[in-house]
Amino acid sequence: MTKILVQKDLVVLDLRAESKDEVLRKLGSLMINKGYAKEGYIEALIEREKEFPTGLVSIDEIGIAIPHTDAHYVNNSAIAVGLLENIVPFGLMGGMDNDLVNVEIVFLLAINNPCEQLNLLQNLIGMFQKRNTLKKIKEAENKGQIVSILNKELIK
């Protein structure tokens, strides 16, 4: 069971970024500023994303990314969500170096327990395979609606 709730203060609507590194820096800074992650978290995210890309395409053909890094960069577990103003290319999970996904939504994970991380990733991927869930998130009018949708889906 996932016990990590999405909080309104970790949801960013219309996140403006030109590159995946800029997305990671902006959302990662939010995690650090709110006390969820430690110094070094952003650099670790960027390095891990180079080695192990996290871009996926949902059943609704919405590009998403689920960047994360090692638990020792994390104080408290949290999920930051960024709805991108414009699509940003991320590497395809399990793909070749030049396989890209046009990402619209980023779910940035800060997980301080490796067992919790696997469970959360499984729940997220399960959510991405459900029709219309990500469409509802994209069409949400405010952070509260997004938080409600995500917490309903992730707390099973």
Q: What average pLDDT do the residues reach?
A: 93
Total domain count: 1
Low-confidence stretches: none
Question: For the CA atoms, what is the radius of gyration?
Answer: 14 Å
- Name the CATH architecture: 3-Layer(aba) Sandwich
Provide a compact summary of the structure.
The protein has 156 residues and is α/β, with parallel strands linked by helices.
Lay out the secondary structure.
Layout: E1 11-15, H1 20-33, H2 41-51, E2 55-57, E3 63-65, E4 78-91, E5 100-110, H3 114-128, H4 133-139, H5 143-154
Parallel strand pairs: 1-4, 3-5
Antiparallel strand pairs: 2-3, 4-5
Helix pairs in contact: 1-2, 4-5
Based on the model shown, name its key terms:
156 residues; alpha/beta; Mannitol-specific EII, Chain A; five-stranded mixed beta sheet; 5 helices; 5 strands; 38% helix
Mind explaining what this structure looks like?
- With 156 residues, the protein is α/β, with parallel strands linked by helices.
- It has one domain (8-154): Mannitol-specific EII, Chain A (3-Layer(aba) Sandwich).
- The chain contains five helices and five strands; from the N terminus they run E-H-H-E-E-E-E-H-H-H.
- The protein has a five-stranded mixed sheet.
- Strand 2 (55-57) and strand 3 form a beta hairpin.
- Helix 4 packs antiparallel against helix 5 (143-154).
- The protein is globular and about 35 Å long.
- The model has no long low-confidence stretch (mean pLDDT 93).
